[in-house]
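queue> pop job 88
queue> type: inverse folding (structure -> sequence)
queue> payload:
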């Protein structure tokens, strides 16, 4: 059994690697918030259509991102074993898998207007959303390249550059939005298409910046030399490890989309309160997500060295850090729910009182499931570190869609509890996932 004193080096390593990743995740969320604020000032109908479009983009994109996430534990294990040739081969095949997926996804984006009409959207809303994705869809390639490069660098403990490139992207995105959405300084006024062009440009610039850094920092690995040369064995490994990661992430994302739909059945004010509470929960979740990415790297490194004691130490240290973060965020959310909600609601809004009445309860619910949310993302990330993704995918799908979604419907809709009942279902699904994933990690991967 790992002693408490023995956890300190693991905690220190986790924080050194993880804090820059936390910063990068919060910066990434800031880009989305800036897009929402600027499009909201331009035209609310365009904002609604772009929200619809980005929901489709993210749902499709997140599956392909699984191949990039598969690169992290593979690179960490290979680097720990001193096999720098495999580091290069795995990353190259991560690019192959990601770009291949992007090519398959692109037609969906280019014909998105037909998809939205089929989903029951108005012709005008489908047209605006389709125009956005006609441009933004091409960004799937640089966006997936960014994910793969981040995984390659994080797998070799280069996380600070990821944060700084993402922070720079926040400012670049805001500037390009200002020029292209509103048509300032003589640029054409493109509205939603301007926001799409800005996103593509920012992802492309980020990919170039990370690629230049990778080439300079790891010149001996020759990452981009003969990148077109296939390595079928490593491509199969990336694929078999990556697709369950993408599907597990999609299952969780879809659960929250289903929750939004159910809350929308209840009422407009409830849906607005749901959106605000979810925004707050997303910011706090980014802290857990950054730490979990660092946990994947450290677990992958221990797996590559076949160090069982280090695996246990990393697992306990990761759980301790994420539970510590959860306790702090629980205290903040539970202490000041009303002031936090007021940040998002205009004092003159006629629905303000109704939003506050529902929102306070939802912020309390967000505080409650902080512990479960942090625990489940750490567990599944540690399992990725030991290259165990297939069974965790099924555990996550069961937890979210056999437990979470039905429980949310039964409590929120059938029993009439309302939005708080839907969120209780979210908490139930996340708790179930945390329990199943930690059980698998400890009994299967960390068993003596």
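queue> result:
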């Amino acid at each position: 059994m790992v002693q408490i004193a023995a956890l300190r080096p693991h905690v220190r390593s986790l924080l050194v690697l993880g804090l820059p990743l936390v910063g990068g995740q919060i910066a990434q969320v800031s880009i989305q918030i800036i897009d929402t604020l600027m499009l909201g000032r331009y035209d609310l109908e365009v904002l609604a259509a772009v929200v619809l479009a980005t929901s489709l983009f993210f749902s499709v994109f997140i599956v392909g991102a699984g191949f990039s996430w598969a690169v992290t534990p593979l690179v960490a294990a290979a680097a720990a074993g001193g096999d720098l040739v495999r580091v290069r081969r795995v990353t190259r095949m991560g690019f192959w898998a990601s770009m291949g997926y992007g090519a398959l996804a692109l037609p969906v984006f280019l014909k998105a207007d037909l998809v939205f009409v089929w989903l029951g959207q108005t012709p005008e809303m489908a047209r605006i959303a389709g125009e956005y994705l006609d441009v933004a869809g091409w960004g799937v390639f640089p966006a997936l390249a960014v994910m793969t490069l981040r995984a390659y660098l994080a797998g070799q403990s280069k996380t600070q550059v990821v944060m700084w490139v993402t922070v720079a992207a926040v400012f670049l995105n805001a500037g390009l939005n200002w020029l292209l959405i509103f048509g300032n300084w003589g640029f054409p006024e493109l509205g939603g298409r301007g926001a799409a062009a800005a996103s593509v440009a920012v992802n492309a610039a980020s990919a170039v910046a990370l690629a230049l850094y990778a080439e300079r920092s790891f010149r001996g690995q020759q990452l981009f030399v003969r990148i077109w040369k296939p390595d079928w064995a490593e491509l199969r490994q990336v694929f078999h490890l990556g697709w369950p990661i993408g599907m597990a992430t999609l299952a969780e994302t879809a659960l929250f989309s289903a929750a939004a739909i159910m809350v929308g059945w209840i009422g407009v004010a409830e849906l607005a309160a749901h959106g605000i509470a979810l925004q707050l929960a997303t910011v706090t979740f980014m802290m857990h997500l950054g730490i979990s990415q660092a946990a994947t790297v450290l677990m992958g490194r221990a797996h590559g060295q076949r160090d069982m004691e280090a695996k246990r130490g990393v697992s306990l240290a990761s759980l301790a850090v994420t539970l510590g973060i959860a306790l702090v965020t629980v205290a903040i959310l539970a202490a000041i729910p009303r002031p936090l909600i007021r940040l998002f609601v205009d004092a003159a809004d006629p629905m303000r009182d109704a939003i506050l009445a529902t929102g306070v309860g939802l912020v309390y619910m967000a505080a409650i499931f902080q512990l479960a949310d942090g625990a489940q993302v750490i567990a599944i990330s540690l399992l990725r570190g030991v290259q165990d993704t297939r069974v965790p995918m099924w555990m996550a799908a069961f937890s979210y869609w056999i437990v979470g979604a039905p429980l949310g419907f039964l409590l929120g809709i059938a029993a009439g509890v309302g939005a708080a009942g839907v969120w209780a279902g979210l908490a139930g699904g996340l708790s179930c996932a945390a329990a199943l994933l930690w059980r698998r990690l400890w009994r299967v991967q960390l068993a003596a």
